[in-house]
Design goal:
The chain is α+β, with helices and mostly antiparallel strands and 585 residues long. It folds into 2 domains: 322 residues, YVTN repeat-like/Quinoprotein amine dehydrogenase (Methylamine Dehydrogenase, Chain H), CATH 2.130.10; 148 residues, Serine Threonine Protein Phosphatase 5, Tetratricopeptide repeat (Alpha Horseshoe), CATH 1.25.40. The chain has 8 helices and 37 strands. The relative contact order is 0.14.
Length: 585
């Protein structure tokens, strides 16, 4: 039988989970907002008042997001804290958690119910895990929330893929009152055309916003990062130029001196080579004293700032310039590699989040199964030099699902969201289009499968293969192609491969256009390899993917993206893609 993994908020039968940390924003000069992007998602670790550890795990990796998800809190020794009882928890992905000074927890993501009751993407829990019914968001956002930030006055900043909140038009960023209602005094004076992954509120009340966006009101500007004033208007004093144009910013960290560390999948920032990490001055310009032009070779998901100013980074990389550093590394304050931190073997798969303990030990989470060659499922604790700690934390079974976020409480307790293993239901219809849920998010995040099979390593591949009822171990490439094509045609007929969850032009266009928009070459290559129909005409713009690529080439003349778009046009054309006008002849 084929085994899959379903995300549940449940106990981590051993230790704490994935992390992206913020050092206590009320009591420390260090502010960190990190995002791990699988859907992406986007993780934020906060220190709770009583020092328990809160962790989020992405249950969107589950092929069955309708299954019940659980949340629990563990004692510091890994046993269940029975005083925390959230019932059946969320029914889909929880991407973000923040803790209030009174110990209440605000959780947000892509769920539609919590403990069996309607709760669209955001809910507040009491300290004992039960739902706080005084928090009333109404119908909530029309799409998922990926980023949260708590203001000192109790108001809540949210960011994500939404266009409305409780029926009111608010695009991508909004502020809520403490009771969950929309704060209508907070209003963006320009629309963000894209997806918000992360937010960080500065001590002066200004708000840094990171994600995948390249324009405001249709004008190309501020790729991947911008800053808002406290009222929601755009801060004109923050000018990153082109920024991370046509790339994503997943992590933002504020240094005590006001400089800003950012990580993501970019290679250039405002035209200056900065391999996946950059430091900005307070005005958004590149800090050229921080030399990361020979940085890491793949994207950065999370950044944690140590008290001594050194910088921990985690992601998908395997090298820092020419030095082996697997998924985690530490940089000196000037951006150079700190070779005293040993991670040449490191994690064998993605590190999504990193958090620092008060004793300088380091918690890392992600979807790895080994660290330094030793079995460590999704979670590990390191010494300050990067070696595994020799304690009970690293002797348990770990987690069996992708770790995304945690909050460490002062007493060491751990609040955990966890995958459970489930067996495929052979009675389900084939093709099973329910398996395609959230697939557009996986295209944007380039999320990788924590349990890959064969040559298929991405979550979008798992979703397509599952929807097509493919058995990777038994089916030949020819059979796989036939099943994928059958599923593809059925999905397009029912508009199951249209990307509504993420804004791009045209909104609601098909997944091939979104892959082009996201520069996800692997997906386009797969579509060509499987010989799927490349000539669907979208209702929203009456164009095929080839029309879309041609339009993007024209729109982006003079930018570095044109060569990539021209390559897409060439390979799609060679694979049989046509313009809508040709199909109508």
């Amino acid at each position: 039988m084929k085994t899959y993994y379903i995300i549940t908020l449940s106990l981590l039968l051993y230790s704490s989970k994935s992390i992206s940390q913020t050092i206590d924003k009320n009591n420390s000069s260090l502010y960190t907002k990190n995002v791990g992007v699988d859907v992406s998602r986007i993780s934020n670790n906060l220190v709770q008042k009583n020092s328990n550890l809160l962790t989020n795990i992405d249950f969107n990796n589950s092929p069955e997001p309708s299954k019940t998800s659980y949340i629990t809190r563990l004692n510091s020794d890994g046993t269940v804290d029975n005083t925390f009882n959230p019932g059946t928890g969320a029914n889909n992905s929880v991407a973000e958690v923040v803790t209030q000074p009174d110990g209440k927890l605000i959780i947000a993501g892509y769920f539609t119910s919590f403990n069996g009751k309607n709760s669209k993407s955001i809910v507040r829990l009491l300290a004992n895990g039960t739902v706080d019914h005084s928090f009333n968001p109404g119908t909530g956002p029309d799409n998922g929330i990926d980023a949260l930030a708590l203001q000192p006055d109790g108001k809540i900043l949210i960011g994500g893929a939404f266009n409305t909140y409780n029926g009111t038009s608010v695009k991508r960023v909004a502020r809520l009152n403490a009771d969950g209602t929309l704060d209508k005094t907070f209003k963006l004076d320009k629309e963000i055309d894209g997806l918000v992954f992360t937010m960080l509120r500065q001590p002066n009340g200004k708000i840094l916003v990171g994600g995948y966006f390249n324009s405001f009101n249709g004008k190309v500007r501020f790729g991947g990062i911008t800053r808002l004033n406290a009222d929601g208007s755009f801060d004109k004093s923050f000018n990153p130029g082109e920024g991370a144009l046509f790339s994503s910013v997943y992590a933002i960290t504020l240094q005590p001196d006001g400089k800003i560390l950012i990580g993501g999948d970019f290679r250039f920032f405002n035209g200056i080579m900065r391999d996946h990490i950059a430091r900005l001055n307070a005005d958004g310009s590149v800090d050229e004293s921080f030399d990361s032009n020979r940085g890491v070779n793949e994207k950065i998901n999370t950044i944690a700032l140590q008290a001594d100013g050194k910088i921990l980074i985690g992601g998908d990389f395997t090298k820092h310039f020419n030095t082996s550093r697997n998924k985690i590394a530490r940089l000196n304050t000037n951006g150079s590699l700190d070779k005293t931190f040993e991670s040449s073997v490191g994690a064998n798969y993605t590190v999504r989040t990193i958090t620092l303990q008060p004793d300088e030990k380091i918690l890392v989470g992600g979807n790895f199964t080994k660290y330094n060659g030793i079995n460590r499922n999704q979670i590990a604790r390191l010494n300050a030099d990067g070696t595994l700690t020799n304690d009970t934390f690293n002797r348990g079974a770990g987690a069996n699902g992708d770790v995304r976020t945690l909050v460490l409480q002062p007493d060491g307790k751990i609040l955990v969201l966890q995958f459970l293993e489930v067996i495929e239901d052979k009675t389900q219809p084939c093709p099973n289009l329910k398996k395609l849920e959230n697939i557009c998010i996986y295209i944007d995040s380039r999320g990788k499968d924590p349990k890959p099979k064969g040559d298929y390593v991405y979550m979008y591949q798992r979703r397509l293969l599952d929807a097509a009822c493919v058995d990777v171990e038994k089916d030949s490439e020819e059979v796989i192609g036939e099943k994928i094509r059958k599923m593809w045609d059925a999905a397009f007929a029912q508009q199951k491969l249209n990307c509504h969850s993420i804004q791009f032009y045209p909104s609601g266009g098909n997944i091939l256009k979104f892959a082009v928009s996201s520069k996800f070459t692997e997906f386009i290559d797969d579509a060509i390899w499987w010989k799927v129909n490349l000539n669907f005409i979208d209702e929203v713009d009456k164009e095929t993917v080839l029309d879309y690529v041609r339009g993007q080439i024209e729109k982006n003349k003079g930018t570095s993206i044109v060569s990539t778009l021209q390559h897409y046009y060439k390979i799609l054309r060679e694979a049989g893609a046509k313009h809508a006008a040709e199909l109508k002849k």
